[in-house]
Every structure is written in structure tokens, then in C-alpha cells.
Amino acid sequence: MNNDYIEYLIKRRITPGSIAARIGSILLVVVCVMLYSVLNFIAFGMSVIAAYLVRYTFQATDVEYEYTYFSGECRFDKIMAKRKRKSMTVLEMDKVELIAPENDDRLSEYEKKGYQLKNFTSGEENAKRYTAFMRNDANLIKIVFEPSEEIIKCMQAYSPRKVIV
User: Fold this and answer.
1) Ramachandran angles phi, psi of 72, nearest 5°
2) What is the pTM of this model?
3) What is the spatial distance between Cα 55 and Cα 93, in angstroms, rounded to a whole number?
4) Model pLDDT, residue 92
């Protein structure tokens, strides 16, 4: 049994939508502050609310994913603003049907079936992505991620028939 412990962290790329949300929230604060000279108390309250909106927007758009592999389990955590951690899912090698590079032909059989998609990638175009199909009770889950070579080697050592390099 393979008891390697590996952590791997990737930063999600900031999308144009995230940039627009950040700029929009900052502009909202500027407008509220400008209204303060006219509407005093109401604009002050709106400015405070807008400032919290800016904080939330920046936290929600600064995302990293951490992959933690240990003894046949790969845990996916979402880290927001380098402060808040949320456990997203666990990839259990015993429940995995197939793990392969993103464009592998063997994945087409599973692509035809209905599945739930979970994406834990950086969004970079040239990143090497892997796709895992895992059966959880009666549901099929598709997990797209960007593991390190070390994680893939450990997964393959744990379950050589299910992991394609």
C-alpha cells in the first residue's frame, strides 16, 4: 500500500469577469463616497455596504486550489484570499473508474454518460490537465484537475489499471 503524502497548490487565473466584478465594486464605492456630500447619512451607510462588497469580491476572485494526496485519497480544497479554506471533494481511488490526460480517447466512453462536473484547474491554456471519473453511489462525477507528476505517479502506483499517464 502506498502511503505517500503530497500537497500541491495551484492558483486560479483571474478571469475577465472577475476583473469586471472588482472594477465594478470599486466604482460603486467611489459613487457612494461622491453621494456622501449630498445625501450624508444614507450615502454613508451605502458606502460601508459597498466597502464590504469590495472586500467580498476581492476574496471571492482570489482563489487557489490545493490537492492533497495521501494513501489512495486526493482531497481538493479551495482557498480564498489565502485565508479561507473550503473542502470541495475527495477523490477516492477505490471509487475511481478512470484517470487520464484531458484529451485521451478512453475518456469518450464516460463523456457520453450523464455526470456532475467539478473543475479544480487554474484556467491556464497550456496547463496539463487530467480528468477523473469517479462513481459515488449511483452518480458519476467528472473531476478536472492539474496534478503534479508526483501525484500522478502515486495514483498510478496505488491503482495502475485506472490511471493512464
Assistant:
1) 85, 10
2) 0.81
3) 38
4) 92
Which residues lie across from 31 on neighbouring strands?
none
Instruction: Report the alpha-carbon distance of residue 35 to residue 18 in Å, rounded.
Output: 26
Mean pLDDT, all residues of the chain: 89
36: left (phi over 0), alpha (psi -120 to 50) or beta: alpha
CA 143 – CA 164 distance, rounded (Å): 15
pLDDT digits (tens, 9 = 90+) for 41-54: 777 788 888 889 99
Whether the predicted pLDDT of 60 surpasses 60:
yes
Residues contacting 145, CB < 8 A, separation 6+: 65, 67, 76, 120, 121, 129, 130, 132
Q: Which amino acid is at 71?
A: S
**b/e map 98-126, b = 16+ CB within 10 Å:** bbbeeeeeebeebeeeebeebebbbeeee
Q: How far apart are CA 30 and CA 26, in angstroms?
A: 6
Strand locations in the chain, DSSP E? 5-11, 63-70, 73-80, 84-92, 96-101, 116-120, 130-136, 139-145
